[in-house]
Design goal:
Elements (H helix, E strand, L loop, with lengths): L1 E10 L6 H19 L2 E4 L8 E10 L2 H19 L2 E9 L1
Antiparallel strand pairs: 1-3, 1-4, 2-3
Length: 93
């Protein structure tokens, strides 16, 4: 059994207030949870209107599945939400 811990630094565009950011964050996290069956939560950059930090974790029998999951999540964030994933940091153990 393999476990992944993924940290994403996401750049936000057109956010005028932290209330607007909260709306984007809640929608994004709920979507990731439902679509990919992962644990997702907001992490760093809580006071920033320009950046968002999200932590994602998941379990699988296959290491390749988890690596593919990272790509799918990043593509989904960039294509469906118009956000930019600036940095990814992951650990598989």
């Amino acid at each position: 059994m393999f476990c992944i811990k993924l940290e994403l630094k996401i750049r936000l565009f057109g956010i005028g207030s932290l209330k607007d950011k909260r709306s984007v964050v809640k929608t994004l996290i709920n979507s990731l949870r439902k679509k990919y069956n992962v644990c997702a939560l907001e992490g760093n950059y809580n006071d920033s209107k320009n950046y968002l930090g999200i932590f994602v974790s998941s379990l699988s029998q296959s290491r390749d599945y988890l690596l593919n999951l990272i790509e799918q999540i990043e593509d989904d964030i960039e294509l469906n939400y118009g956000l930019e994933v600036e940095r990814e940091d992951y650990t598989i153990f």
